[in-house]
Please model this.
Amino acid sequence: MKQVNQKLSQHEKRLKHVYGVAQTAVSLANFYDVDSNKMMLAGLYHDFSKYDDINVELLSDNEKEIVKDYPVMFHAYQAAYLITRNLDISDLDIINPIKCHVWGKPNMSIYEKILFVSDYCEPNRSFLDIKEIFELAKNDLNAAVLKCMTISIKDLETRGILPSKYQLEAYDYYKEVSLWKKN
Model:
């Protein structure tokens, strides 16, 4: 936590956000009876590189290609890399949620889904329906993931930004899961 406080000390809102995400992720982890310590770390470090300059040298070839087209993804990949290298955290239940917290991905693990949803519904967010999303997450985590993805895609569209193909693949997957569950 010391590293997070130091790195984000000049960004008070971001610091509040990461603590809110960690708190929400721990709450959902406890609800789903998964390792809350892993979720606390993922929540605290998910935006660790949010203000870093883009330098793709340390990323995998696939990550470099994605960042070239979608720079918003850099901070997720870089944070995962830095905590692996500098903090010796290599647990994939921590690393993978950090890598996919921006858009999600098809068939996420429970840890990935918890961080993804927590990033949207932590208490410091200004969305009108954060409490609804949190309650939905306790009832149906996949439905909460789909709702977060829907909000994100609609927000992009209102700003005239096309969602990435990766974002749409994840959205289509969870839409299908939702339809399958209804039948």
About this structure: The chain has a mean pLDDT of 94. The domain at 2-182 is CATH 1.10.3210.10 (Hypothetical protein af1432). The radius of gyration is 16 Å.
